[in-house]
Design goal:
Two copies of one chain form a homodimer. Chain A has a two-stranded antiparallel sheet with strand order 1-2. The first copy, chain A, has 18 helices and two strands. Chain A has helices spanning 2-6, 8-15, 17-30, 38-47, 54-65, 72-94, 106-109, 112-132, 136-159, 167-192, 197-224, 227-230, 236-239, 245-253, 256-267, 273-285, 288-306, 314-328, and strands at residues 99-100, 103-104. Helix content of chain A is 76%, strand content 1%. The first copy, chain A, has one domain (17-328): Farnesyl Diphosphate Synthase, CATH 1.10.600.10. Chain A has 331 residues and is mostly helical. At the A-B interface, helix 6, helix 8 and helix 9 of A face helix 6, helix 8 and helix 9 of B.
Chain lengths: 331, 331
């Protein structure tokens, strides 16, 4: 129990163990197809790959913070995990990834075709689950979130190897690929609880800032993380020509000679270990790793401050500590 | 006007020109993304590739047959065209197709990644449009249809080159990949009109049988069609190892020697023109092309008979003649 107390995600999982078991049962039920066993095989591989279920936990916790007493939060938590899973499957196809969290991806074990179609299936099932919650407001939020996610992913794809990618475009990408679903996950918990707009807005902001802080931390760790705990090599974003904040700011501040180095390394795919070292050296020189760290911590604080409208409770404390926990890996 | 009278699809487009223009405007509005122009570029390519918009026409016509007077039918028709477009984009990635209706596919002109993500985007937009129609019943029907479509596509993928594919599995595949959306398209027109269950059921059956007849005709034409009007070579399904009804029935009736030929041709990819000729010879021998033709005509009749509950009108006559028109290419 003590180690769980120090990790707010584990504490939330412990607190909402019964609810999360119901979510898992729903996920299993909805991904089982008798005629096409590959759906559950592939989905099971994905669900057992060590995801922390942060998004469905957010929905459950938000609903509980608003004193919700029905069972729609279970359905919506499962729907949100399905949307997330569908985007993971499609992402790995788009990125041609062979590993996720240190384990082989579905597209590597099966093939791209199956990952595309099973992703579509999971997205459809998430849609069925949302309809079961019988709230047009919730459906509208999740439809908008889905569109924002796709838009972010497409923008990210267009920005690959584009050295002119701006900080503004970067934020648009991470608002889409990460913050939109965190925001929706937290917000729908409030919506189904029928609380006043102030509380809905508070949880919407909490989710959004948490998502931004989560993604900035992830992008920073790609340069400064510990390979063992990351389960992958550092510098993957650099090698794939994915421009994240530390790199975007470094290119912005670079001398002509440094810009030429980046152009050469990224456009011509010569992103060897020496290039990565050189890139890290330039980022350190201009303090862009620190700049990114500070932005992540800013968002973490904003997420925490969003919860001010709620009266104090253990759950509120845990949700506030979650914002610190996320940046603790880089702080 | 006279040539339009002989073609029920053109007649429906003529009759509902105003509505279809509104549908097109909605499609354009929802596929425009300022930050990511590739979305509208790729979608426009797809929408201008010569599709007949049969599914959205079905929704408009069904609503009109039920005397509907609101504007949800426009939104739902656009939503259904988006679902269809999303599946086309993903299908072409899964099948590695370079051409559709004689024109280069989006995945060929852009890349698989863009087709996967823009497909996801269009699916999300269809979901937004459905929510705007503000009917949980409609949302439920379309969520179920989407899941059935994905399931059909996955089943089809698993059945590729599987010589044991049964007639039962074939019907499950085409129920998914084609009939489910035809059925939903016709049914939602009735649902929003709030007509009695008998009329909903009639249009549901009409759509389903029309979809089945449409797919059987398509699968037969792949063997017996005219290459010029098809816009592609005949025998593509055979070459790709896609088992459709004429082939499934032929394999079922084959002698051991013929079975060995099919196994050799399909499993080992030796599907040259001589193999196709031999396959056609065996299909003719066992009458499986005729068997498929009869099944298509049966479904066409069932579709037509489904409309009996509606009182006579020009629109009913056109919808009945549409069922004959679809099979006229093989009859």
């Amino acid at each position: 129990m003590n180690s769980q107390m120090n990790n707010p995600i584990k504490l939330l999982r412990f607190t909402f163990d019964k609810e999360m078991q119901s979510v898992d049962r729903l996920l299993n039920k909805y991904m089982t197809s008798v005629s096409t066993p590959i759906i559950s095989e592939l989905s099971n591989h994905l669900f057992n790959a060590g995801g922390k279920r942060v998004r469905p936990l957010l929905t459950i916790a938000s609903a509980k913070l608003c004193d919700y007493s029905g069972d729609s939060h279970i359905k919506l938590a499962a729907a949100i995990e399905f949307i997330h899973s569908a985007t993971l499957l499609h992402d790995d196809v788009v990125d041609e990834s062979e590993k996720r969290r240190g384990k082989p991806t579905a597209n590597f074990l099966w093939n791209n075709q199956s990952s595309v179609l099973v992703g579509d299936y999971l997205f459809s099932k998430s849609f069925q689950l949302m309809v079961e919650a019988e709230s047009l407001d919730v459906l509208s939020i999740l439809a908008d979130a889905s569109a924002t996610i796709s838009e972010g992913e497409i923008l990210q794809l267009s920005a690959v190897k584009n050295l002119n990618t701006s900080e503004e475009v970067y934020y648009k990408i991470i608002e889409g690929k990460t913050a939109a679903l965190f925001e929706a996950a937290a917000m729908v918990g409030a919506i189904i609880s029928k609380v006043e707009p102030d509380f809905v807005k508070a949880l919407k902001n909490y989710g959004r800032y948490l998502g931004l802080c989560f993604q900035l931390t992830d992008d920073l760790l790609d340069y400064v993380g510990d390979e063992k705990s990351l389960g992958k090599k550092i510098g993957d974003d650099f090698r794939e020509g994915k421009l994240t904040l530390p790199l975007i700011k470094a290119i912005e501040k670079s001398t002509l000679k440094e810009k030429k180095f980046f152009k050469n390394a990224i456009k011509r795919n010569s992103t060897c270990d020496e290039s990565l070292e050189e890139a890290l050296f330039i980022m350190e020189k201009y303090g862009t790793l620190d700049f990114t760290r500070k932005k992540a911590i800013d968002f973490s604080k904003k997420a925490s401050d969003s919860l001010t409208v709620f009266s104090d409770s253990n759950l509120k404390t845990t949700l506030k500590s979650l914002t610190c926990y996320i940046v603790s890996r880089i702080n």
